[in-house]
Design goal:
Layout lengths: L2 E4 L4 H9 L5 E2 L6 H8 L5 H17 L4 H4 L1 E13 L2 E3 L5 H11 L3 E14 L2 E16 L4 H10 L19 E5 L2 H5 L3 H10 L12
Parallel strand pairs: 1-2, 1-3
Antiparallel strand pairs: 3-4, 3-5, 5-6, 6-7
Helix pairs in contact: 2-3, 5-6
The structure holds 2'-deoxyguanosine-5'-triphosphate (DGT).
Length: about 210
């Protein structure tokens, strides 16, 4: 049976896949995202940035796979960033940055881009590849000052791209989205289904025992 390898440390992506019937083999890529982005240059299109980051993550774990996994596997790498005011934003990392972002984006909208790369692997070699990004417009609500401070205090916004979650505390402050919710959380299931199809895999082949 083909093993789905998730090239990500993201608990969100792992949860999305588990709820969708797949128990992935997780290998964290450790890719230096800043270095990849710098190599692409300042004029790289946002969709290319997230897709190349996803490709770098998937590619990086190929050599880390045990032989029994690498015999028959599909590796998925992802990268999510928020495109707003013409700039790509990753994780804010600090409360001050998260606060400034929320004060700027509340009541407005941005586009959450998630790049995806799927590598089909047989006997340790890449025999197929498909990649694409998904874009979801996110309409931000207007949290009160107290709610925003409490949200920052929770620590959640610092750890996620765009300083918000759809499926966590951030959900109180997202008015609506236009696009695929799983892609906002971190891995777009309908897009991954298409990409898996392009390398000859049907999603139900990956579902564990029901
Ligand atoms: N639960 C949840 N997480 C979100 C949401 N939006 C973004 N995130 C998370 C997913 C990813 O873990 C993180 C985006 O950062 P990256 O794409 O660089 O992934 P991360 O560094 O977490 O792991 P990786 O680089 O794949 O090993 O933000 C959301 O709506 N819900």
């Amino acid at each position: 049976m083909t093993t789905l390898v998730l090239a990500s440390a993201s608990p969100a992506r792992l949860t999305v896949l588990r709820k969708a019937g797949v128990e992935p083999f997780v290998v964290v890529s450790g890719v230096d995202e800043d270095a990849v982005q710098e190599a692409l240059g300042p004029s790289a299109a946002p969709s290319r940035v997230v897709t190349e980051l996803a490709r770098a993550k998937a590619t990086a774990v190929l050599t880390e796979l045990p032989a029994d996994v690498a015999a028959d596997a599909v590796i998925i790498g992802c990268d999510s960033m928020l495109l707003i005011d013409g700039t790509l934003q990753g994780k804010p990392h600090t409360a001050d940055i998260a606060r400034a972002r929320w004060r700027s984006m509340m009541g407005r909208s941005g586009t959450l881009l998630t790049g995806h790369c799927v590598l089909r692997v047989r006997d340790g070699a890449t025999v197929g590849e498909s990649s694409a990004d998904s874009a979801t417009v996110v309409h931000f609500g207007t949290p009160s000052g107290d709610d925003l401070e409490a949200y920052l205090e929770s620590g959640e916004p610092m750890q996620v791209a765009g300083a918000f979650t759809l499926d966590g505390l951030g959900g109180w402050f997202i008015d609506r989205i236009e696009g695929d919710p799983s892609s906002v959380i971190g891995i777009g299931l309908p897009l991954v289904r298409r990409l898996l199809g392009e390398v000859g895999i049907g999603v139900s082949e990956l579902w564990g025992p029901r």
